[in-house]
Every structure is written in C-alpha cells, then in structure tokens.
UniProtKB/TrEMBL annotation:
Taxonomic source organism: Roseovarius atlanticus
InterPro entries with a match to the protein in the record: Cro/C1-type_HTH, Lambda_DNA-bd_dom_sf
Top-rank lineage group of the source organism: Bacteria
CDD domains in the cross-refs: HTH_XRE (cd00093)
Coiled-coil region(s): none
Domain spans labelled HTH cro/C1-type: 32-62
Entry's Gene Ontology molecular function annotations: DNA binding
Lineage: Bacteria, Pseudomonadati, Pseudomonadota, Alphaproteobacteria, Rhodobacterales
Identification of the protein by name: HTH cro/C1-type domain-containing protein
PROSITE patterns: HTH_CROC1
Amino acid sequence: MLDFHDRLKTYIKGSSYDYKGLSLEIGQGERYISNLLSSKSDPGYSSVVKICSALGITPNQIAGLNDQITLAGGEIDNRIVSAQAERILTSVTREAHRKLSQRGARPLLDDVLTWWHQQGGVLTNFDTLSEHVDLYLAPDEHSRLPEPYKIGHQSLAAESFGIQTAEHLRYLFTTFDDKLCESVRLAHVETTKGDPKLTIEEIDVMLPGHSFPLRFTYKRLLLPVRDAYNNKYVLNYSQALE
C-alpha cells in the first residue's frame, strides 16, 4: 500500500510540475518537496492544502481515500479542505508520535533540523518537539546573560539540572562561571544571524546542593526561530554525548 509520500510522488509525475517548480508554487524554498520526499518527513497543515490546490487534487486523494473530487482555484471550499486536511494531519502526527515512541520519545537532530527547514524557522507544528527543547529570547545589545523563555520538560537542561521553569534556569545562569555565560550568550548572538549552529560542548557547572562541579558533555543545536508575531528566539536542542 502506498504511503503519503509515494502518492505525492505519483501525483507530481502526473502533473506539469517538477519538485522545484511545485516547491516554489506553494511558496517554499526550491528543495522543499525534494527534502520532504527524501526524508519522508511530515508536511505542515498549510503545505498540505497548498500542495493539493497546486496539483488539482483533494486532501482525501493524497491520503489514499476514495474522494475523487478535484480542486480548481476559486471553486475550493476552504471549510471542506480544512476539515479534510485536519484529518490527514491528525493521522500523520499520530504516526510521527509513534515513531518517536519507538526510539524512546526523543527526536533526532535530523528531526529538529527538518522541522526547522520545513517551517521556515517559524514556531508552528511544534507540539512533537516542544517538550524536548528550550527557547531563549534572542539577545539584544543590552543582554548580559542568556535569557531563558520556555523550558521543555524533557530537555537536556531540565533533566540534567533538575529544573522545570525558565525562571529557575535564569537563576542558575547567575551562579554559573562568567566565561560559560558569555560563551552561551555569544553563541545565541551568532545564531540570530540566521544559520543553525551545531557544536559539541563540554562544561563544568556548580549546581545547588553539590560541593564540586559537575561535567556535562553534549551535542548542542541552536536554531534561530520566530513566532507568528515575529518575536525572535533561539531554540536549543541538546543531546548528551554517549
């Protein structure tokens, strides 16, 4: 049985679009469709609707259901399309959660990078990842310390430092070595210039209740992101180095 990505390939072959042309038609970067198909990643809600509209098909068809009604420009009933796309994405999201559960409910670095690329750096379709990442306010010229905004309950910082709130992490930064804080702040400054930053970090921190520093070695992915109101943040996804 064909899955979503195989059906999409078939519909594209039968259309006047190649992968680049369809990507540009729906307002994405020229490799969006190619990356979507090669990685078998999950499309966003709006992308499903735009892809179907460009190809002249319904969300039911791309989902492999029996609805053969085609879409044609101004004849689209947005309420019907929205309801159908919602059903498809519910199924896609459920499958994504199942895959994450199979490998310990922790996303891979590739998962996070693929999500960031597909969403164009916007914090949408974020539920699967939100518990595993930390968000920081993008630094400005007056920033002295990193500014935690939201902590994922299963992020590396939450699990390693025993924290649950941005306020708690903000307090810990006031107790950390000045060089460490400045290193993190500068990494956030560089990230806000637009490119992902993937590094291996080794830090020694003194946590409350401990009489000696604890060493943490981990992979750190920093991504520039923004919300629907164009507020800018730095997303931190870290994994312990094994």
